[in-house]
Amino acid sequence: MNIVTMTTPNKIIKNATVLIKGNKISGINEAIPTEATIIDGNGKWLIPGLIDMHVHNLADIDFSSGYPTKASTIFIDTQDFMLQYIANGVTTAFELSARPAHFGQRNEIAKGKVIGPRIALAALIDGTDGSGNNAHSPSEGRQTVRIAKAQGYEFIKVYSGLNIETYKAIIDEADRQGMKVVGHIPNAFKGKIEEAFIPHFDMVAHAEEYAKQTDYFTAEDVQRFAKLAKENGTWLTPTLITMHRIADQSHSLDSIRQLPYLKYVHPLMQSKWLTSNSYNKGSSPERKEYFEKLIHFNRVLVKAFKEAGVPIVAGTDSGTSGVVWGFSLHDEMELLAEAGLTNEEVLAAATSLPAMWLGIEDKIGTVEVGKYADLILLDANPLENIQNTRKISGVFVNGQWIAKEKINLMLNDLEKRNRANKENYDWAKRKDY
């Protein structure tokens, strides 16, 4: 077995053995105990488990407000949902619109009731009266951050509707509370983006957040944005796959129907994406052209940010129509490679760098003794072709080995359950939303 350690500098250890005791890596190239269970990795490649830095997980949903149905709760089977991550070697996920139900999911995983990824939780704060927490003044912003900290959220996500002074107060209070900030560049900064880049605005959640700040998409814009981010120490999660999926849907919903992994998505979301799809219904030639401009701009932006030395991490915005949990991280990694990152840089964007930003680089992100055994065994070298991250022989999740054969059986069972339950979640037939 060959190990791609993802240490700095990245070290390749050929013809290696890895010892796992409990849930941690206990040795590399050490003597194998006689009582050890042997997993044959001959000719294979071991990499750290992948990290998706922008997800929106399904959890039990209370629809008593009337959307999509009055007085009903949709119960999400946590294991069925988390299987999508595990099947793809995604062993950590960053939830950017967390709510109490996500704590429940995380607890099920931590207690061993569910095999799933580690989950980091960010509380969303907006300035409008939509979903998430809302703050309309600096004092409200500070109080909302303090409440989020007390409730157990680890990070803060700022959103588009915040006014300037509230945004600044939220970031300052988050720093006081020891919470990093990720999110959107509020719309209030249009035409004065420089003012948004204040200390402790730690990461922008989409490449198109920069696109919103220009009407012209020029090379000068890209260089200006890269310089701002670099000087402020603000990282980037481009979520390239999201705009690709949105653009595809603006042309035809066949792009969703033909997704090979749609069958693993909860039937409620399958139905919603196909029958209540705003990207498709609101489509026009002008809108299609705009989406294509965004795709090009985002790609150019990623390349410029790389050249400027701005750290880039892989995230998908999964939960957006057509962006499927787990599977889409591989799509994102391939798009990052197309945008100009080397295969090694792409792997770093999905392993060691996210661990560093999340502050858990001492626990995950590289293959080293003492770290948690969140690992993927691949059939081919991902440094030669990033698509090889899809060629999964098996996954270690917190030390537990799940072979590809078992993953396939679990996926087949999930597909059958989804197919059997499809009628119960037909969005188009609901009359009370």
Taken from the alpha-carbon principal axes, the silhouette is globular
Beta-strand residue percentage: 15-25%
Whole-number mean pLDDT: 94
Cα distance, first to last residue? 54 Å
The tally of strands reads 18
Radius of gyration: 22 Å
Count of DSSP helices?
Answer: 15
Helix content: 25-40%
Which structural class do you get from the secondary structure elements? alpha/beta
Low-confidence stretches: 64-71
Sheet with the most strands, sense and barrel status: 8 strands, parallel
Question: Nutshell version of this structure?
Answer:
The chain is an alpha/beta fold and 433 residues long. Strands 6, 9, 10, 11, 12, 13, 14 and 15 form an eight-stranded parallel β-sheet that branches. The chain is globular.
Give your account of this protein's structure.
This protein has 433 residues and is an alpha/beta fold. The chain has a domain at 49-96 and 205-364 and 408-429. The protein has 15 helices and 18 strands. Strands 6, 9, 10, 11, 12, 13, 14 and 15 form an eight-stranded parallel sheet that branches. It has a six-stranded mixed sheet with strand order 2-1-5-16-17-18. Helix 3 packs parallel to helix 4 and helix 7 runs antiparallel to helix 11 (285-308). The radius of gyration is 22 Å and the shape is globular.
